[in-house]
Amino acid sequence: MFIKKLYLKNFRNYEDQTFEFGEGVNVVTGDNAQGKTNCAEAVFLLATGYSPRVKKDRQVIRYGQDKAEISVDAQSNYGNVSVKLNFYEQGSKKIFINGAETKRIGEIFGNVYAVFFSPQELKLVQESPDDRRRFLDIAISELSRRYFYSLQKYKKIIEQRNKLLKNEDREMVLDTLPVWDDQLAEYFADVVLMRADYVRKLAPKAMEAHLYITDGKERLEVSGAEKYFGDRAEVVEQIKIDLANCVEKDLVLGYTTIGPHRDDLKLTLNGEDVRVFGSQGQQRTTALSLKLAELEILKDTYGEYPVLILDDALSELDKNRQLAILKRIQGVQTIITCAEMDEKVFSQSDCKLFRVSNGRIVG
Questions:
Q1: For 327-337, what is each residue's pLDDT tens digit?
Q2: pLDDT score of 347
Q3: Which of 277, 302, 6 is CA-nearest to residue 126?
Q4: CATH code reported for the domain at 128-302
Q5: Between β-strands 307-311 and 334-338, what pairing exists: parallel, antiparallel or unpaired?
Q6: Rounded to an integer, what distance in angstroms lies between the CA atom of residue 207 and that of residue 290?
Q7: Which DSSP string corresponds to 84-108?
């Protein structure tokens, strides 16, 4: 897949701008706060509906305006595709796929597929399990709309279940919980089974990517807490039993103590926890390796590479690792943002250069 055209209107600091990308490496340069990351953010929003930077959609609207529009024209093995997002000051947004409006945000997945990395993605390695779950959730949703919808329903039922657990009428709670748990177990099973399958695919690909980038010096191992085995029906029954066994504990604590909302990924380098013992460079390389593994899984699924977005991703890596990454992504449409284009690093790549200033392409 490759993006042919990206259009931004009143998005962040862009008033009205079109990027026409090449099929290889596209380098967007400029001083800080000129619009490089805004361009990268827009591409990922059009692929997933998620902003990697803000939680409220209205925050992407240009100051003084009440609406923003972003759109992309792309080409894949399945034909041409267009996606457009309109954002409104009151917080709503509209999604258009090939010109037709869709009301379900999950329908955005699988049209334009992309992998995003920025310095903020270091949270994937450095910070809480929430960040690693978010990585899994977005990555798997790009492969399966069913996963996205099952996850949304799971979260809603967990919220209702937690409210119920805080109710002081214990008899009513004990009578009602089995009804919620029968529903919860179905979506719980979908999420844990698809996450386990994804981690099984991710682990060897991340290890191989990390060995490549580090010239064989560091071995990255990825694992998750796989607790359920068997077919889906068997897993649903196991989950119902586990939920029933945790009722007394859940009532005391006032929340649901088991489930995919408590999952985590374990990441080790040469047997040591990279979060605790890894240097900044090792942690960055680990996060990049996970993203490169995600790239390969999308390629295996769709039969072609997604768009790779590297937002200020290379700046803190040594030259050898920078060159290894650029060699690794040959044949992948890539959008790279950086303050300055290092000719020595990019000399082996066929690059298209965009220089931006104050939300405009200036060269």
A1: 888 899 999 99
A2: 67
A3: 277
A4: 1.20.1050.90
A5: parallel
A6: 9
A7: EEEEETTS-EEEEETTEEES-GGGG
